């Protein structure tokens, strides 16, 4: 099993959720996060003062899938979240040793 952690633009969340749903991915965790990369933040004016914000709002999406489906899930996330501009995000892939469904006690891919 693999855990996919994707940092994406907030406005792309619904597109990614729809794409994953079309693949039959039913479970995911979504978190609001802040960060920066090549964008280096932005400048805004607040009450006449210039404020530099180095952290941009992002969405962190976490999904655990079977190892056999990893390529199709990653491709789906990339295609549905890509704008071609700086700040599109990153995807990280981790190995998952085990998964346990608390309600039933199922282990491994059965718990997904």
UniProtKB/TrEMBL annotation:
<protein>
    <submittedName>
        <fullName>Nitrogen regulatory protein P-II</fullName>
    </submittedName>
</protein>
<dbReference type="InterPro" id="IPR011322">
    <property type="entry name" value="N-reg_PII-like_a/b"/>
</dbReference>
<dbReference type="GO" id="GO:0030234">
    <property type="term" value="F:enzyme regulator activity"/>
</dbReference>
<dbReference type="InterPro" id="IPR017918">
    <property type="entry name" value="N-reg_PII_CS"/>
</dbReference>
<dbReference type="GO" id="GO:0005524">
    <property type="term" value="F:ATP binding"/>
</dbReference>
<dbReference type="GO" id="GO:0005829">
    <property type="term" value="C:cytosol"/>
</dbReference>
<dbReference type="Pfam" id="PF00543">
    <property type="entry name" value="P-II"/>
</dbReference>
<dbReference type="InterPro" id="IPR002187">
    <property type="entry name" value="N-reg_PII"/>
</dbReference>
<dbReference type="GO" id="GO:0006808">
    <property type="term" value="P:regulation of nitrogen utilization"/>
</dbReference>
<dbReference type="InterPro" id="IPR015867">
    <property type="entry name" value="N-reg_PII/ATP_PRibTrfase_C"/>
</dbReference>
<comment type="similarity">
    <text>Belongs to the P(II) protein family.</text>
</comment>
